[in-house]
Amino acid sequence: MKNYFKQINHMKNLIIASTSTIHGSGYLEYLLPTLENHFENCNTILFIPYARPGGMTHDEYTSRVQEAFAKINKKVIGLHEFENPTEAIEKAEGIFTGGGNTFLLVTQLYQNNVMEVLSNAIENGTPYLGSSAGSNITGISMQTTNDMPIIYPPSFKTLGAIPFNLNPHYLDADLQSKHMGETRETRIKEFHAFNSTPVLGLREGSWLDVKGDAIILKGALTARLFLQNQNPEELNPETDLNYLGKI
Amino acid sequence: MKNYFKQINHMKNLIIASTSTIHGSGYLEYLLPTLENHFENCNTILFIPYARPGGMTHDEYTSRVQEAFAKINKKVIGLHEFENPTEAIEKAEGIFTGGGNTFLLVTQLYQNNVMEVLSNAIENGTPYLGSSAGSNITGISMQTTNDMPIIYPPSFKTLGAIPFNLNPHYLDADLQSKHMGETRETRIKEFHAFNSTPVLGLREGSWLDVKGDAIILKGALTARLFLQNQNPEELNPETDLNYLGKI
Protein backbone atom coordinates (compact mmCIF):
# COMPACT_ATOMS: atom_id res chain seq x y z
CA MET A 1 0.00 0.00 0.00
CA LYS A 2 2.78 2.37 0.97
CA ASN A 3 4.74 1.78 -2.23
CA TYR A 4 1.59 2.11 -4.28
CA PHE A 5 0.95 5.46 -2.61
CA LYS A 6 4.46 6.63 -3.42
CA GLN A 7 4.10 5.59 -7.05
CA ILE A 8 0.86 7.35 -7.82
CA ASN A 9 1.32 10.39 -5.62
CA HIS A 10 4.17 12.64 -6.64
CA MET A 11 2.79 15.68 -4.85
CA LYS A 12 5.24 17.65 -2.81
CA ASN A 13 4.62 17.08 0.87
CA LEU A 14 6.60 19.19 3.35
CA ILE A 15 6.34 20.60 6.84
CA ILE A 16 8.71 23.55 7.10
CA ALA A 17 9.01 24.74 10.68
CA SER A 18 10.59 27.91 12.02
CA THR A 19 11.93 26.08 15.06
CA SER A 20 12.13 22.55 16.46
CA THR A 21 11.32 23.76 19.92
CA ILE A 22 9.10 26.46 21.34
CA HIS A 23 9.78 28.06 24.70
CA GLY A 24 8.81 25.88 27.66
CA SER A 25 8.17 22.77 25.57
CA GLY A 26 10.16 19.67 24.62
CA TYR A 27 12.01 18.99 21.38
CA LEU A 28 9.45 18.89 18.49
CA GLU A 29 6.66 18.55 21.08
CA TYR A 30 4.34 21.22 19.65
CA LEU A 31 4.56 19.60 16.21
CA LEU A 32 4.03 15.96 17.13
CA PRO A 33 0.29 15.81 16.31
CA THR A 34 1.04 17.35 12.91
CA LEU A 35 3.95 14.99 12.34
CA GLU A 36 1.93 11.92 13.22
CA ASN A 37 -0.30 12.79 10.31
CA HIS A 38 2.52 13.98 8.05
CA PHE A 39 4.50 10.77 8.42
CA GLU A 40 1.49 8.43 8.66
CA ASN A 41 2.75 6.19 5.85
CA CYS A 42 6.28 5.95 7.25
CA ASN A 43 7.65 3.44 9.72
CA THR A 44 11.14 4.86 9.58
CA ILE A 45 12.32 8.40 9.10
CA LEU A 46 15.71 9.25 7.66
CA PHE A 47 17.30 11.99 9.76
CA ILE A 48 19.86 14.39 8.30
CA PRO A 49 21.97 15.51 11.28
CA TYR A 50 24.54 17.55 9.31
CA ALA A 51 23.68 20.94 10.88
CA ARG A 52 24.48 19.52 14.34
CA PRO A 53 23.82 22.42 16.71
CA GLY A 54 26.61 23.41 19.08
CA GLY A 55 28.91 20.96 17.32
CA MET A 56 27.23 17.92 18.91
CA THR A 57 28.01 14.61 17.17
CA HIS A 58 25.78 13.09 14.51
CA ASP A 59 25.05 10.22 16.89
CA GLU A 60 24.09 12.51 19.76
CA TYR A 61 21.81 14.53 17.52
CA THR A 62 20.19 11.42 16.06
CA SER A 63 19.51 10.08 19.58
CA ARG A 64 17.69 13.25 20.48
CA VAL A 65 15.50 12.91 17.40
CA GLN A 66 14.88 9.21 18.01
CA GLU A 67 13.58 10.06 21.46
CA ALA A 68 11.12 12.61 20.09
CA PHE A 69 9.83 10.40 17.28
CA ALA A 70 9.47 7.39 19.58
CA LYS A 71 6.48 9.26 21.04
CA ILE A 72 4.64 8.81 17.75
CA ASN A 73 6.06 5.33 17.19
CA LYS A 74 8.46 6.16 14.40
CA LYS A 75 11.95 4.75 14.01
CA VAL A 76 14.71 7.18 13.09
CA ILE A 77 17.99 6.40 11.31
CA GLY A 78 20.73 8.97 10.84
CA LEU A 79 21.95 9.60 7.28
CA HIS A 80 25.52 9.36 8.58
CA GLU A 81 24.92 5.68 9.37
CA PHE A 82 24.63 4.78 5.67
CA GLU A 83 27.57 4.03 3.45
CA ASN A 84 25.67 5.35 0.45
CA PRO A 85 23.80 8.53 1.40
CA THR A 86 22.33 8.92 -2.10
CA GLU A 87 20.66 5.55 -1.92
CA ALA A 88 19.50 6.21 1.64
CA ILE A 89 17.70 9.37 0.53
CA GLU A 90 16.25 7.79 -2.61
CA LYS A 91 14.81 4.90 -0.60
CA ALA A 92 13.64 6.93 2.41
CA GLU A 93 9.98 6.69 3.43
CA GLY A 94 10.24 10.12 5.07
CA ILE A 95 13.01 12.63 5.71
CA PHE A 96 13.74 15.08 8.53
CA THR A 97 16.53 17.66 8.36
CA GLY A 98 17.22 19.13 11.79
CA GLY A 99 18.39 22.61 12.73
CA GLY A 100 21.80 23.87 13.73
CA ASN A 101 24.20 25.74 11.49
CA THR A 102 23.00 26.28 7.93
CA PHE A 103 26.51 26.87 6.53
CA LEU A 104 27.58 23.51 7.90
CA LEU A 105 24.44 21.75 6.68
CA VAL A 106 24.75 23.11 3.13
CA THR A 107 28.50 22.36 3.00
CA GLN A 108 27.90 18.74 3.99
CA LEU A 109 24.99 18.26 1.60
CA TYR A 110 27.25 19.40 -1.25
CA GLN A 111 30.28 17.46 -0.05
CA ASN A 112 28.22 14.28 0.09
CA ASN A 113 26.65 15.04 -3.31
CA VAL A 114 23.11 14.80 -1.99
CA MET A 115 21.69 18.30 -2.53
CA GLU A 116 20.16 17.34 -5.85
CA VAL A 117 19.18 13.87 -4.65
CA LEU A 118 17.32 15.43 -1.74
CA SER A 119 15.64 17.92 -4.04
CA ASN A 120 14.46 15.09 -6.30
CA ALA A 121 13.14 13.05 -3.36
CA ILE A 122 11.09 16.05 -2.25
CA GLU A 123 9.80 16.69 -5.78
CA ASN A 124 8.80 13.04 -5.97
CA GLY A 125 6.63 13.31 -2.90
CA THR A 126 8.76 11.88 -0.10
CA PRO A 127 7.34 13.47 3.07
CA TYR A 128 9.87 16.00 4.35
CA LEU A 129 10.19 17.83 7.63
CA GLY A 130 12.60 20.70 8.15
CA SER A 131 13.21 22.76 11.25
CA SER A 132 15.29 25.94 11.38
CA ALA A 133 18.39 25.23 9.20
CA GLY A 134 16.52 22.24 7.76
CA SER A 135 13.78 24.66 6.73
CA ASN A 136 16.16 27.30 5.46
CA ILE A 137 17.42 24.89 2.82
CA THR A 138 13.95 24.38 1.34
CA GLY A 139 14.17 27.94 -0.02
CA ILE A 140 15.93 29.12 -3.15
CA SER A 141 19.10 30.02 -1.28
CA MET A 142 20.45 29.99 2.26
CA GLN A 143 21.16 33.71 2.01
CA THR A 144 18.61 34.75 4.63
CA THR A 145 19.89 32.48 7.37
CA ASN A 146 20.71 33.93 10.80
CA ASP A 147 23.66 31.62 11.26
CA MET A 148 27.36 32.33 11.50
CA PRO A 149 29.53 31.41 8.50
CA ILE A 150 31.57 28.88 10.48
CA ILE A 151 32.45 26.96 7.31
CA TYR A 152 32.65 27.99 3.62
CA PRO A 153 30.05 26.19 1.50
CA PRO A 154 30.64 25.53 -2.23
CA SER A 155 27.46 27.50 -2.99
CA PHE A 156 24.61 29.29 -1.20
CA LYS A 157 22.04 27.70 -3.54
CA THR A 158 19.63 25.35 -1.80
CA LEU A 159 16.72 23.03 -2.61
CA GLY A 160 14.22 25.47 -4.08
CA ALA A 161 11.29 23.33 -2.92
CA ILE A 162 9.43 26.59 -2.29
CA PRO A 163 9.65 29.60 -4.62
CA PHE A 164 11.05 32.03 -2.01
CA ASN A 165 13.50 32.27 0.88
CA LEU A 166 12.88 31.78 4.57
CA ASN A 167 14.09 33.55 7.64
CA PRO A 168 13.37 31.09 10.46
CA HIS A 169 13.23 32.22 14.11
CA TYR A 170 12.01 35.55 12.76
CA LEU A 171 12.37 38.17 15.47
CA ASP A 172 10.69 41.57 15.64
CA ALA A 173 12.89 44.54 16.46
CA ASP A 174 13.08 45.33 20.18
CA LEU A 175 12.12 48.99 20.18
CA GLN A 176 13.49 49.43 23.72
CA SER A 177 16.93 48.13 22.81
CA LYS A 178 20.00 50.36 22.92
CA HIS A 179 21.91 47.90 20.78
CA MET A 180 23.07 49.39 17.47
CA GLY A 181 23.56 46.12 15.54
CA GLU A 182 21.17 45.58 12.63
CA THR A 183 17.65 44.32 13.29
CA ARG A 184 16.41 41.26 11.43
CA GLU A 185 14.28 43.48 9.21
CA THR A 186 17.28 45.66 8.31
CA ARG A 187 19.27 42.57 7.38
CA ILE A 188 16.52 41.27 5.11
CA LYS A 189 16.26 44.70 3.47
CA GLU A 190 20.01 44.50 2.79
CA PHE A 191 19.41 41.14 1.12
CA HIS A 192 16.84 42.85 -1.10
CA ALA A 193 19.31 45.53 -2.11
CA PHE A 194 20.99 42.76 -4.13
CA ASN A 195 18.41 40.02 -4.60
CA SER A 196 14.78 39.94 -5.76
CA THR A 197 13.78 36.65 -4.09
CA PRO A 198 10.83 37.12 -1.68
CA VAL A 199 11.65 36.38 1.98
CA LEU A 200 9.23 35.04 4.56
CA GLY A 201 10.03 35.79 8.19
CA LEU A 202 8.62 32.75 9.98
CA ARG A 203 8.15 33.27 13.73
CA GLU A 204 8.78 30.52 16.26
CA GLY A 205 5.68 28.31 16.47
CA SER A 206 4.78 28.87 12.79
CA TRP A 207 5.30 26.42 9.96
CA LEU A 208 4.48 25.97 6.30
CA ASP A 209 2.40 23.01 5.18
CA VAL A 210 3.28 22.27 1.56
CA LYS A 211 0.98 19.88 -0.30
CA GLY A 212 1.51 19.90 -4.04
CA ASP A 213 1.24 23.50 -5.14
CA ALA A 214 -0.32 24.77 -1.90
CA ILE A 215 1.99 26.41 0.65
CA ILE A 216 -0.14 27.13 3.70
CA LEU A 217 0.99 29.16 6.72
CA LYS A 218 0.21 27.24 9.92
CA GLY A 219 0.34 28.00 13.63
CA ALA A 220 -1.26 30.82 15.61
CA LEU A 221 1.00 33.68 14.50
CA THR A 222 1.21 35.90 11.46
CA ALA A 223 4.34 35.74 9.29
CA ARG A 224 6.19 38.75 7.89
CA LEU A 225 6.63 38.87 4.14
CA PHE A 226 9.38 40.93 2.55
CA LEU A 227 9.27 41.74 -1.15
CA GLN A 228 11.95 43.78 -2.88
CA ASN A 229 11.17 47.51 -2.92
CA GLN A 230 7.93 47.07 -0.97
CA ASN A 231 6.89 47.56 2.62
CA PRO A 232 6.80 44.35 4.65
CA GLU A 233 3.41 42.75 5.10
CA GLU A 234 1.90 40.55 7.83
CA LEU A 235 0.27 37.38 6.52
CA ASN A 236 -2.42 35.55 8.45
CA PRO A 237 -2.41 31.84 9.24
CA GLU A 238 -3.98 29.76 6.44
CA THR A 239 -2.62 32.11 3.76
CA ASP A 240 -1.51 30.18 0.67
CA LEU A 241 1.95 31.44 -0.35
CA ASN A 242 1.93 29.69 -3.69
CA TYR A 243 1.43 33.05 -5.44
CA LEU A 244 4.97 34.07 -4.50
CA GLY A 245 6.22 31.80 -7.28
CA LYS A 246 4.26 33.81 -9.82
CA ILE A 247 5.34 37.36 -9.02
CA MET B 1 57.43 65.63 7.48
CA LYS B 2 54.45 63.41 6.82
CA ASN B 3 56.22 61.41 4.14
CA TYR B 4 59.30 61.12 6.30
CA PHE B 5 57.13 59.73 9.09
CA LYS B 6 55.61 57.16 6.75
CA GLN B 7 59.04 56.07 5.53
CA ILE B 8 60.66 55.44 8.87
CA ASN B 9 57.67 54.14 10.78
CA HIS B 10 56.25 50.90 9.50
CA MET B 11 54.46 50.10 12.74
CA LYS B 12 50.93 48.86 12.41
CA ASN B 13 48.53 51.54 13.51
CA LEU B 14 44.85 50.62 13.72
CA ILE B 15 41.70 51.57 15.57
CA ILE B 16 39.29 48.64 15.39
CA ALA B 17 35.86 49.63 16.71
CA SER B 18 32.91 47.42 17.54
CA THR B 19 30.48 50.03 16.22
CA SER B 20 30.51 53.39 14.45
CA THR B 21 27.74 54.70 16.62
CA ILE B 22 26.74 54.23 20.24
CA HIS B 23 23.18 54.66 21.41
CA GLY B 24 22.07 58.27 21.69
CA SER B 25 25.15 59.69 19.97
CA GLY B 26 26.02 60.79 16.41
CA TYR B 27 27.91 58.83 13.78
CA LEU B 28 31.50 58.21 15.03
CA GLU B 29 30.95 60.89 17.71
CA TYR B 30 32.29 58.91 20.68
CA LEU B 31 35.48 58.14 18.76
CA LEU B 32 36.30 61.60 17.37
CA PRO B 33 38.85 62.59 20.06
CA THR B 34 40.64 59.26 19.48
CA LEU B 35 40.48 59.70 15.71
CA GLU B 36 41.87 63.21 15.84
CA ASN B 37 44.98 61.73 17.37
CA HIS B 38 44.95 58.58 15.23
CA PHE B 39 44.82 60.50 11.95
CA GLU B 40 46.92 63.47 13.12
CA ASN B 41 49.32 63.17 10.16
CA CYS B 42 46.56 62.86 7.56
CA ASN B 43 44.81 65.63 5.70
CA THR B 44 42.69 63.25 3.68
CA ILE B 45 41.24 59.89 4.61
CA LEU B 46 40.41 57.25 2.03
CA PHE B 47 36.99 55.78 2.83
CA ILE B 48 36.05 52.25 1.76
CA PRO B 49 32.24 52.32 1.45
CA TYR B 50 31.82 48.78 0.05
CA ALA B 51 29.80 47.40 3.01
CA ARG B 52 27.15 50.11 2.45
CA PRO B 53 24.56 49.49 5.18
CA GLY B 54 20.97 49.06 4.08
CA GLY B 55 22.09 49.12 0.46
CA MET B 56 22.73 52.90 0.50
CA THR B 57 24.90 54.11 -2.39
CA HIS B 58 28.65 54.59 -2.13
CA ASP B 59 28.11 58.32 -2.56
CA GLU B 60 25.50 58.53 0.20
CA TYR B 61 27.69 56.57 2.56
CA THR B 62 30.75 58.69 1.76
CA SER B 63 28.77 61.88 2.43
CA ARG B 64 27.83 60.65 5.87
CA VAL B 65 31.48 59.96 6.65
CA GLN B 66 32.60 63.31 5.23
CA GLU B 67 30.21 65.06 7.59
CA ALA B 68 31.61 63.24 10.62
CA PHE B 69 35.26 63.81 9.72
CA ALA B 70 34.68 67.48 8.92
CA LYS B 71 34.33 67.95 12.68
CA ILE B 72 38.02 67.10 13.08
CA ASN B 73 39.00 68.92 9.87
CA LYS B 74 39.72 65.88 7.74
CA LYS B 75 38.79 65.49 4.10
CA VAL B 76 37.31 62.16 3.02
CA ILE B 77 37.38 60.61 -0.47
CA GLY B 78 35.50 57.43 -1.32
CA LEU B 79 37.52 54.56 -2.82
CA HIS B 80 34.80 54.17 -5.46
CA GLU B 81 35.76 57.60 -6.83
CA PHE B 82 39.15 56.34 -8.02
CA GLU B 83 39.73 54.62 -11.33
CA ASN B 84 42.59 52.66 -9.82
CA PRO B 85 41.65 51.45 -6.32
CA THR B 86 45.01 49.73 -5.80
CA GLU B 87 46.90 52.97 -6.32
CA ALA B 88 44.40 54.85 -4.14
CA ILE B 89 45.06 52.48 -1.24
CA GLU B 90 48.82 52.45 -1.74
CA LYS B 91 48.96 56.25 -1.70
CA ALA B 92 46.43 56.81 1.09
CA GLU B 93 47.50 58.87 4.10
CA GLY B 94 44.87 57.11 6.20
CA ILE B 95 42.10 54.58 5.57
CA PHE B 96 38.65 54.04 7.05
CA THR B 97 36.49 51.02 6.25
CA GLY B 98 32.91 51.56 7.35
CA GLY B 99 30.35 49.07 8.59
CA GLY B 100 27.45 47.45 6.82
CA ASN B 101 27.37 43.95 5.40
CA THR B 102 30.61 41.98 5.78
CA PHE B 103 29.78 39.52 2.97
CA LEU B 104 29.36 42.44 0.59
CA LEU B 105 32.49 44.19 1.80
CA VAL B 106 34.67 41.09 1.45
CA THR B 107 33.20 40.26 -1.97
CA GLN B 108 33.98 43.73 -3.27
CA LEU B 109 37.49 43.79 -1.81
CA TYR B 110 38.24 40.57 -3.67
CA GLN B 111 36.46 41.62 -6.87
CA ASN B 112 38.50 44.82 -6.97
CA ASN B 113 41.70 42.91 -6.14
CA VAL B 114 42.49 45.07 -3.14
CA MET B 115 42.38 42.66 -0.20
CA GLU B 116 46.13 42.07 -0.34
CA VAL B 117 46.86 45.71 -1.19
CA LEU B 118 44.91 46.82 1.87
CA SER B 119 46.69 44.26 4.02
CA ASN B 120 50.07 45.56 2.82
CA ALA B 121 49.09 49.19 3.45
CA ILE B 122 48.16 48.28 7.03
CA GLU B 123 51.39 46.31 7.54
CA ASN B 124 53.34 49.31 6.25
CA GLY B 125 51.86 51.57 8.90
CA THR B 126 49.08 53.45 7.09
CA PRO B 127 46.70 54.51 9.89
CA TYR B 128 43.56 52.40 9.60
CA LEU B 129 40.14 52.74 11.17
CA GLY B 130 37.53 50.00 11.00
CA SER B 131 34.04 49.95 12.41
CA SER B 132 31.79 46.89 12.56
CA ALA B 133 32.24 45.12 9.16
CA GLY B 134 35.36 47.23 8.63
CA SER B 135 36.67 45.82 11.91
CA ASN B 136 35.59 42.28 11.16
CA ILE B 137 37.92 42.17 8.17
CA THR B 138 40.98 42.97 10.28
CA GLY B 139 40.70 39.47 11.75
CA ILE B 140 41.91 36.21 10.25
CA SER B 141 38.54 35.45 8.69
CA MET B 142 35.07 36.96 8.48
CA GLN B 143 33.60 33.77 9.92
CA THR B 144 32.41 35.33 13.16
CA THR B 145 30.40 38.12 11.56
CA ASN B 146 26.76 38.63 12.56
CA ASP B 147 25.75 39.58 9.03
CA MET B 148 23.47 37.86 6.56
CA PRO B 149 25.11 36.12 3.58
CA ILE B 150 23.43 38.41 1.04
CA ILE B 151 26.20 37.77 -1.50
CA TYR B 152 28.67 34.89 -2.00
CA PRO B 153 32.28 35.99 -1.45
CA PRO B 154 35.18 34.21 -3.20
CA SER B 155 36.66 33.44 0.23
CA PHE B 156 36.01 34.08 3.93
CA LYS B 157 39.71 34.89 4.51
CA THR B 158 40.33 38.49 5.54
CA LEU B 159 43.24 40.82 6.36
CA GLY B 160 44.79 39.06 9.33
CA ALA B 161 46.05 42.36 10.76
CA ILE B 162 45.34 40.90 14.20
CA PRO B 163 46.00 37.26 15.12
CA PHE B 164 42.39 36.39 16.00
CA ASN B 165 38.80 36.93 14.90
CA LEU B 166 36.35 39.57 16.03
CA ASN B 167 32.68 39.51 16.82
CA PRO B 168 31.66 43.19 16.72
CA HIS B 169 28.43 44.41 18.36
CA TYR B 170 28.92 41.58 20.86
CA LEU B 171 25.69 40.99 22.70
CA ASP B 172 25.17 39.12 25.95
CA ALA B 173 22.39 36.57 26.08
CA ASP B 174 19.08 37.96 27.28
CA LEU B 175 18.23 35.53 30.07
CA GLN B 176 14.60 36.69 30.11
CA SER B 177 14.07 35.95 26.42
CA LYS B 178 11.69 33.25 25.26
CA HIS B 179 13.31 33.24 21.83
CA MET B 180 14.84 29.88 20.92
CA GLY B 181 17.29 31.09 18.25
CA GLU B 182 20.97 30.70 19.14
CA THR B 183 22.64 33.27 21.39
CA ARG B 184 25.79 34.98 20.21
CA GLU B 185 27.83 32.85 22.58
CA THR B 186 26.30 29.63 21.19
CA ARG B 187 27.15 30.74 17.65
CA ILE B 188 30.76 31.42 18.57
CA LYS B 189 30.99 28.04 20.27
CA GLU B 190 29.75 26.47 17.02
CA PHE B 191 32.55 28.29 15.21
CA HIS B 192 34.97 26.69 17.66
CA ALA B 193 33.62 23.23 16.93
CA PHE B 194 35.35 23.60 13.54
CA ASN B 195 37.99 26.33 13.96
CA SER B 196 40.73 27.03 16.52
CA THR B 197 41.06 30.79 15.90
CA PRO B 198 40.43 32.83 19.09
CA VAL B 199 37.39 35.10 18.93
CA LEU B 200 37.01 38.40 20.75
CA GLY B 201 33.46 39.56 21.44
CA LEU B 202 33.81 43.36 21.31
CA ARG B 203 30.88 45.20 22.89
CA GLU B 204 29.53 48.46 21.48
CA GLY B 205 31.68 51.33 22.76
CA SER B 206 34.84 49.21 22.88
CA TRP B 207 37.69 49.30 20.41
CA LEU B 208 41.17 47.88 19.91
CA ASP B 209 44.12 50.23 19.62
CA VAL B 210 46.82 48.47 17.63
CA LYS B 211 50.27 50.06 17.67
CA GLY B 212 52.97 47.80 16.31
CA ASP B 213 52.71 44.56 18.27
CA ALA B 214 50.47 45.95 21.01
CA ILE B 215 46.72 45.30 20.72
CA ILE B 216 45.11 47.21 23.58
CA LEU B 217 41.43 46.96 24.56
CA LYS B 218 39.96 50.46 24.91
CA GLY B 219 36.66 51.88 26.14
CA ALA B 220 34.89 51.42 29.44
CA LEU B 221 33.64 47.86 28.97
CA THR B 222 35.18 44.42 29.29
CA ALA B 223 35.41 42.24 26.19
CA ARG B 224 34.55 38.54 26.05
CA LEU B 225 37.28 36.21 24.84
CA PHE B 226 36.44 32.79 23.41
CA LEU B 227 39.17 30.18 23.05
CA GLN B 228 38.50 26.75 21.60
CA ASN B 229 37.59 24.18 24.30
CA GLN B 230 37.80 26.75 27.09
CA ASN B 231 35.29 28.74 29.08
CA PRO B 232 34.85 32.31 27.87
CA GLU B 233 36.74 34.96 29.81
CA GLU B 234 36.08 38.66 30.43
CA LEU B 235 39.05 40.90 29.63
CA ASN B 236 39.48 44.31 31.23
CA PRO B 237 40.16 47.53 29.36
CA GLU B 238 43.89 48.10 28.76
CA THR B 239 44.53 44.38 28.32
CA ASP B 240 47.12 43.71 25.60
CA LEU B 241 45.78 40.98 23.32
CA ASN B 242 49.06 40.47 21.52
CA TYR B 243 49.51 37.13 23.37
CA LEU B 244 46.65 35.63 21.34
CA GLY B 245 49.04 35.36 18.41
CA LYS B 246 51.34 33.13 20.46
CA ILE B 247 48.92 30.52 21.78
Automatic annotation (TrEMBL), chains A, B:
Pfam families to which the protein is assigned, alphabetical: Peptidase_S51
Cross-referenced CDD domains: GAT1_Peptidase_E
GO molecular function: serine-type peptidase activity
Transmembrane feature ranges: none
Signal peptide, first to last residue: none
GO biological process: proteolysis
SUPFAM superfamilies given in the database record: Class I glutamine amidotransferase-like
Entry keywords, A to Z: Hydrolase, Protease, Serine protease
Similarity annotation: Belongs to the peptidase S51 family.
Stored NCBIfam families: PRK05282.1 (NF003642)
PANTHER family per record: ALPHA-ASPARTYL DIPEPTIDASE, PROTEASE S51 ALPHA-ASPARTYL DIPEPTIDASE
Name by which UniProt lists this protein: (Alpha)-aspartyl dipeptidase
Species annotation: Flavobacterium aquatile LMG 4008 = ATCC 11947
